[in-house]
Amino acid sequence: MLETAQDLRFEPVRNKAPSVLSAADIQSYNARGFVQPFDVFSGAEMARIRAYIDGLIAAKGPEGAYGINCYQARLAGLWDIATDARILDLVQDLIGPDILCWASAILSKAPGDPKVVPWHQDASFWSLSPARTVTVWLAIDDADAENAAMRFIPGTHDCGAIEVTSSGEDAVFHKETAGAETFGTPVVNALRAGQVSLHADMLVHGSTANLSDRRRCGLTLRYCPPEVRITDRPWAAGVEAIGCRGRTGGWRTYPRPGTDDIAAVSSPHVVGNN
Fold it and tell me: DSSP character for 116?
């Protein structure tokens, strides 16, 4: 399943009969690179999910805020969220009936957290081609401008790979999109707990420091169709995909894990932040 070059061009969604999304949603995704918000989990469900996520963060200690990456095939609770039919129905309208979840991350910004996630395009960090991954961002806490909700720059998903430069000392990784805000006005991805957004893998996005007295925690889930291929063998060794629906193509996939003890497993791979 290995390829040697990356195609980072955006391919517009051509779904004339979406099941959950509206025609306007599809149009918005194609034009702006994202669509939101969508109610998925109820208040009662989110209370259970939040308690579960809080337990994982606490168990990981200091690295729990930014270091719980790609456990979707190693922890049963994350597997169950990633394969929830309500999320998959949304994703299916964008990428079709064959769905793989190949990465996930828990991202928790504590009150007063000075770290910023610099402007970036996700797919530029990955060894995948073509660029067809849709990221679902599930709000574990309410997220808004005050507590450093993710921000998007609409339309940048269709600009190809934009030049990068070094990021500042408070950034969670060392590269950022050069001159990002010259591409347009950022939009705050405001979500209530239990809601999700969906965005394209080449959309420029990031988040500011959380200077509020409220935590901002989210779970990202990365989905792609099986025609996407991995372009780098060492990188491929760390990808543990879930076959969520339909065909899996040449992807190696993993069954539902039998544990939720994060101390008993390790992450196979580290893939980005939001």
Answer: B
